[in-house]
Amino acid sequence: MRKLFAILLMGLLWFTLAPADAAAAGAPDTHLVPCQASEAFQERMQNAPESYYFDQPYQAYESNLLCGADGLPHLQLRFDRAIDVVIPFAIFFYFAGFVGWSGRAYLIGSKRASKPEETEIFIDLPLAIRAFSQGLLWPLLAIKELTAGELTVQKNELSVSPR
């Protein structure tokens, strides 16, 4: 429980005490300019071959993005656009946890079978469906097992190699 509290406290301090980016604080962003005002971008656009695959992206970049000194479009990471990073990360994290928790639940369940080696080779469908359904709720189950002390082992159960 203390570890969970420490992690939550670290996250809270990280997001509240982290310095705000310069653009949000009111300081001008000197190294990125609108692409339509960038001479290097205009030169790149003029030297690009004329085709749909070059014209369309350059026109979209020119009106919507910011360019650096190299004339290439850049995306700014700002706190107001953090949701663009948080949502894909959350989806990935949930899916990775789902796969891991489902596999863990299947292996724990297969150890209870009469022939556990066979259940690892030949998939037991009812057990797999039960493991997948547990995997859907993996964040709640992980918190429950962490608070109950079932997710981690005690220090005296860890093997330490002699050195």
Structure description:
- Keywords: Membrane, Photosynthesis, Photosystem I, Signal, Thylakoid, Transmembrane, Transmembrane helix.
- It holds the Pfam family PSI_PsaF.
- This is Photosystem I reaction center subunit III.
- Belongs to the PsaF family.
- The protein has 163 residues and is mainly α.
- Among the domains are: 42 residues, no CATH class; 69 residues, Photosystem I, reaction centre, subunit PsaF (Helicase, Ruva Protein, domain 3, Orthogonal Bundle).
- Helix content is 59%, strand content 4%.
- It contains seven helices and three strands, in the order H-E-H-H-E-E-H-H-H-H.
- It has a three-stranded antiparallel beta sheet with strand order 1-2-3.
- About 3% of the residues have low confidence.
Question: Which features would summarize this protein structure in a list?
Answer:
163 residues; mainly alpha; Helicase, Ruva Protein, domain 3; 3-stranded antiparallel beta sheet; 7 helices; elongated
